[in-house]
Amino acid sequence: MKKRFAGWLFGLVVFGCAWHSHSAPLQNAGFEAGDFGGWSVSTDGNSTAEVVQLDNGYLPPEGQYFAKLSSGDYSYDGSSIRQALEWSTGDLLVFTWNFYSTDTFNDFAGFTLDVPTHLVDKITLASGMQATGWHTYTYVFDENGTGAISFWAHNGGDQMFSSYLYLDSITYKVTSGPGGDPVPEPCTMLLMGTGIAGVVAVRRKRSFFRSTI
Predict the structure, then answer these.
(1) Which pTM value belongs to this model?
(2) What is the mean pLDDT of residues 174-187?
């Protein structure tokens, strides 16, 4: 009976850990819903924001879909997507991006972090005429905050060509607690606990068996 209970408990922990490891504070972060569910979308002029499976010869680096933000080809227009986010010092924002532009003017693309009272950070990923291909970017949070993250593509001031920011696999990773100390994964602790309990049970069983010989 005890053996069955231990096996059931271990299975429950593993199942719970599998669920926990896939949970994330960002909704639809890989755009696998095939749309922008969970994101607020903004477009100006003739700029667009789409979720696509193929564009300019590029396939998604993960899954079946990726986001496509266009700068538009009117002066100073652009598109963006935005989602609420709470972050902690030392944690990471990791995502895959690609900038494609045939515009000789300086169209540009990047992301912004802000809280209700002020802009926290603004990062330009790429600008000008280029095709970067897919890259992985890692951002380290250096303060706690509750606000939003926005990704955007903007026109550089001409009225000719549109440029594009492609996005996929946006992930928020918890890496540290207060003071920068690593945070033990709850599931790691649970698995260790069940493992130790199993070892103790085996030793007790062996001790009992030896005492009866």
Answers:
(1) 0.73
(2) 58
